[in-house]
């Protein structure tokens, strides 16, 4: 068993219950019920963003396996670890008797909770290919070692997001998912990004719901103005999520990169408005006395930074210009 496990904590227990009850069995993206899939992700985000982070990783992994035509290991709680932060990476090297995973991966949510992950690995240093590989790996084995001191904030702490060191973890040929480069080239890659945006949306809507409970019986005009603008921003991005889901289901094989980038930008903008305006609506007392509100704000501020801010906005702008020029 690699590292210290956290599989018996309250959130892990809740995830196991959801898994065994079938609550994590969502419709696949692009299969006709994408709106229902994203609504479930949003609902989890509104309940608890750490829970939603792990649940989203599991359902994303199952969608990736389905796209590859592979069944998941029965009863296993999955995640997807694909971070390239700070240049840290795991390589698939040739060991003495088999190929092995060696290196360090950052931002491994569920590091001490999950059973298996789909891990994006670099090819061996001496490989002629530069295409990354996707590996279905058991992370409970010796050699997959979570680093407990690698998460230094209380935000999203229950998601158990740590660095994980891989030290010659054996990989069989059957553990490889798709050909080299398949993980990012597959049609479902963009759709997974929209699922994450649905979680952000749920987290932001959940914060606003909590704020409404702190308003006086007769809120002042400034509070009402903020609430009205937040409601409008969330309603607009929710409508865009629904429209995008319908577009995806109408033509699952099409390139939905622009639509997904657009909806992610819209939800990220609405979320930033929530993070900016909520403290101005409620003032210091609820921020310091409502632990649930304080935690939800901190979790949301960190989680939404999976969106790469101006870099993602610039990439979206480039797609818009290219689309206009080719029309």
UniProtKB/TrEMBL annotation:
Keywords: FAD, Flavoprotein. SUPFAM superfamilies: Acyl-CoA dehydrogenase C-terminal domain-like (SSF47203), Acyl-CoA dehydrogenase NM domain-like (SSF56645). Belongs to the acyl-CoA dehydrogenase family. This is Acyl-CoA dehydrogenase family protein. Residues 181-300 form the Acyl-CoA dehydrogenase/oxidase C-terminal domain. InterPro entries: Acyl-CoA_Oxase/DH_mid-dom_sf, AcylCo_DH-like_C, AcylCo_DH/oxidase_C, AcylCoA_DH/oxidase_NM_dom_sf. Signal peptide: none annotated. It holds the Pfam family Acyl-CoA_dh_1.
């Amino acid at each position: 068993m690699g590292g210290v496990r956290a599989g018996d904590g309250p959130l892990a227990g809740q995830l196991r219950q959801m898994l065994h009850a079938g609550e994590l069995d969502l419709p696949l993206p692009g299969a006709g019920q994408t709106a229902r899939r994203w609504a479930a992700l949003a609902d989890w985000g509104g309940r608890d963003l750490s829970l939603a982070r792990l649940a989203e990783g599991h359902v994303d992994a199952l969608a990736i396996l389905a796209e590859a035509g592979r069944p998941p290991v029965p009863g296993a709680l999955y995640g997807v670890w694909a971070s390239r932060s700070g240049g840290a990476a795991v390589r698939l090297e040739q060991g003495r008797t088999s190929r092995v995973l060696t290196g360090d991966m950052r931002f491994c949510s569920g590091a001490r909770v999950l059973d298996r992950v789909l891990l994006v690995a670099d090819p061996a240093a001496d490989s002629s290919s530069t295409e990354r590989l996707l590996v279905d790996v058991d992370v409970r084995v010796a050699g997959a070692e979570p680093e407990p001191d690698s998460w230094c904030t209380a935000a999203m702490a229950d998601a158990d997001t740590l660095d994980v060191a891989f030290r010659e973890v054996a990989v069989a040929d059957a553990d490889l998912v798709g050909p080299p480069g398949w993980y990012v080239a597959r049609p479902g890659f963009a759709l997974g990004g929209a699922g994450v945006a649905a979680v952000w949306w749920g987290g932001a809507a959940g914060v606003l719901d909590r704020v409404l409970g702190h308003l006086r019986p007769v809120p002042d005009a400034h509070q009402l103005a903020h609430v009205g603008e937040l409601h409008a921003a969330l309603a607009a991005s929710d409508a865009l999520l629904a429209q995008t889901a319908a577009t995806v289901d109408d033509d699952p094989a099409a390139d939905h990169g622009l639509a997904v980038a657009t909806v992610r930008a819209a939800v990220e903008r609405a979320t930033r408005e929530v993070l900016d305006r909520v403290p101005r609506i409620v003032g210091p007392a609820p921020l310091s006395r409502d632990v649930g509100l304080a935690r939800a704000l901190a979790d949301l501020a960190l989680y939404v930074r999976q969106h790469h801010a101006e870099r993602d906005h610039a990439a979206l702008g480039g797609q818009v210009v290219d689309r206009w020029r080719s029309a």
